[in-house]
Structures are given as structure tokens and as C-alpha cells.
Amino acid sequence: MNIHEYQAKAILRRFGVPVPDGHVCYNGASAREWAKRLGDGPWVVKAQIHAGGRGKGGGVKLARTSQEVQLIARNMLGMTLRTHQTGPDGKLVTRVLVENGCNIDRELYISLLVDRSTSKVTVMASTEGGMDIEEVAATTPEKIFKEAIDPLVGLSPFQCRNLAFSLGLTGKLLPKAQKLLENLYATFIACDCSLLEINPLVVTKEGDLLALDAKFGFDDNAIFRHLQISDMRDYDEEDPNEVEASQHDLSYVSLNGNIGCLVNGAGLAMATMDIIKFSGGEPANFLDVGGGATIERVTEAFKIILSDKNVKGIFVNIFGGIMKCDVIATGVIEAARQVSLQVPLVVRLEGTNVALGKQLLSESGLNIVAADGMADGAQKIVQAVAA
Ligand code: ADP
Ligand code: MG
Question: Which residues fall in a coiled-coil region (predicted)?
């Protein structure tokens, strides 16, 4: 799960990480009022969308008067912002953050993430703040510094000093950097984060450290422990089909192809996508209906797949291990009737009671193409969609 910048900054503030004062606003008039309350300016108006690169796309603007804040906010609200992270469709801006502008001396980069290669939380720091870290890693990897944190010991003072020195944070900035890093690590652990990225972390002309941008990723498996955070979820930022699927406990990720896939088990779902590609087709989605697929869930899964207008055919690939094939077949037939299926449907069943399952499908009177094995099924659906 992701959250907006203004929400991220509220969390950081609570953990003692310095951020500029600011407030989220939904219209121009309130943006102007909040600007006046925040101080004498200048202010920065920032589009709140779940994507970075807003600065370059016109989503971060400086204002010198409160009237200017109002004008910029009014223009930004309702606009579709395109950045290199939003994709070509862009994202609709429905809220802006109005915050105090600061005098930037240097822009740095800091992130904490779960590093799978060391199985530890790792701090990444770079002097190249404000840039895409992927680009820095590709062109000047020597400018990225890392410290892997021992989970039992936590972030040690020597590691904070290492990081601070590599960023040139010495003298009066050193204790500030140390405190900031400790607080970031405390935030990361307390909130069950998968990612916490500050880009940029700035050194101001006045000699302070300030987190100017913040991005959080949370571990979805732990989100139930954080009601305040799960309340921050903004469904407008997510694919509506994926939201619908998650409400029915289906793992669904929409993709760009035209072959809908209904599969049980994540591994089989991945293999199904691979074999569709191998046979010259393009999957429209990843969908795992899980081990205990009931008729209701299979029906929901069909509805979600079919609400994607690009879908020209469906490939059902089920291995009945715990689930019996006749139960699955009944579910597929029922679902196909309920949604009055118009597109070709190829079904491959294997496992317990497979003969009975196949018999039910062939006697259903529905236009279902039975497949023998995965490769056969993939070829048949690719042909059906191409026809
Ligand atoms: P994004 O990463 O989406 O482009 P940022 O929040 O990082 O958005 O803002 C882009 C740039 O705008 C920053 O690198 C910084 O130079 C400037 N900026 C952002 N917020 C402020 C602020 N409060 N005061 C001064 N400059 C800011
Ligand atoms: Mg940024």
C-alpha cells in the first residue's frame, strides 16, 4: 500500500523527522487561507498523486504571494498530471499540499528498504538528491552508500556517522543527521514499512536538515496492525478492478494483453502467463483465485476479468489438488451462465475427479473448448483470440 506525500509527512513529523510545515487543500480558497496561516511565504504548492517526478511535470510550483498560491492550486486541482511514473494516461489531481518553501543549499537522497540479498533493512544514501536513484545507480554507482542494519542491534551510531560523513554532513550537521537517521529507522520498524524514501533530504542555507519529499511503501501483510495507516488508503489512486478483486480475496493484477487468465495458485498463474506468451499471446491479467475457490469466487473472478474491455478470450487453468475438478467445473459453468459469456473460453482441468469435471463441461451446452494440458490450452486460446 502507498500513501500521499502529505500523509507521509504527517507520519514523519510524529516520529520527530523534520519536515516543512504544510497542509493538504482541496480548493483554491482554502489553499490561500492555509498559506496565510503557515507564514509569510514563499510557499510551494504540490500536486498529491501516488507518483514521483512531479517537479518536472509541473506538479510542484513556487508561490510568492497567497493570491499566487490560490491561482496555482486552482489550476493544479482537476488537472491530469503526467510524469515518467504515471504512465501515458497520467493521474487526476484532487488534492494539493501547500507548504512553506525553504532555502535549499544541497539536495541529498536517503532511503530505507528491505534488501533481499542481505535479508536486512538497508539504508541507502547519496549526494545526488532530487534525481531518480535508478539513474544514479546506473551512471554513477560510486555515489551511492549503503549500510545494512542488524535487526537485533538496530542502527548503530557508527553506521549513522559513516552515512553522514559520506554525505558530507559534518560539524553542526552531524548530530542532526544522526538523530534524523535514528528517527527514520524507528519509523520504518514501527510502521512495518517495505520502503521509506526521502528524495530530496535537503540541507538548508540556515544549516538545518529537512525532508522535502517522502514516499512510503507498507507491507500489506502487516497493514492490519496499523489502522491509522490503512485509513490513509486512497482508492482513487488504485486500479478499480484490483480494488474489487482484493475485496473478494482474489490476487489480481491487470496487464496490457487480451487473454484473461483464471488460475489457482500463484505459481501456476505465473506459469500460465509464461506459456501464453510462449504461444504468441499476451495475458490481460494475473489472477490467482486461491486454493478454496468457491462458485461465488469463480463468478467474481469472471466478472472482474470481463470488465476489462481488452479481454477477447479467457483461459481457465486449474489444478484440482485440494479442490476437486467437478466442483471447479460446476463453478465455471455457473459463472459462465451468470455473466452470459460472449468471448471464447478454453478450460484445462487436471487433478482429482478430472473425468467427471470434463464430462460436466462437455454436457453443459456452453461453448467451452476443453484442453489437454497447459500447452494445448495456451495454443487453443491464442488461436481463438486471433480468429
Ligand atoms: P517529485 O519527486 O515528485 O518531483 P519533490 O517533492 O521531490 O517532487 O519536489 C521536486 C523538487 O521541488 C525538489 O527536489 C525541490 O528542489 C523542490 N521542492 C519541493 N518542496 C519544496 C519546498 N517545500 N521548498 C523548496 N523547494 C521544494
Ligand atoms: Mg522527490
Answer: none
Return the pLDDT at 326.
87
CATH of span 21-101: 3.30.1490.20
Determine if residue 199 is labeled as part of a ligand binding site: yes
Q: Is the CB of 174 under 6 A from ligand 1?
A: no
Catalytic site residues? 109, 197
Interval 179-208: pLDDT, tens: 999 999 999 999 999 999 999 999 999 999
Domain 1-19+103-238: give its CATH superfamily.
ATP-grasp fold, B domain (3.30.470.20)
Report whether 384 contacts 364 (CB < 8 A). no
CATH fold of 239-386, please? Rossmann fold (3.40.50)
The residue nearest atom 11 of ligand 1, judged by CA position, is 55
52 lines ligand 1 (CB under 6 A): yes
- The pLDDT score that the predictor gives to residue 158 is 98
Residue 102: burial class (beta carbons within 10 Å; 0-12, 13-18, 19+): middle
Separation of alpha carbons 149 and 27, rounded Å: 43
Cα(86)–Cα(75) distance, rounded to whole angstroms?
Answer: 19
Ligand 1: nearest atom to the Cα of 57 = 4
Q: What band does 297 get if pLDDT is binned at 50, 70 and 90?
A: confident
Output the pLDDT for position 1: 86
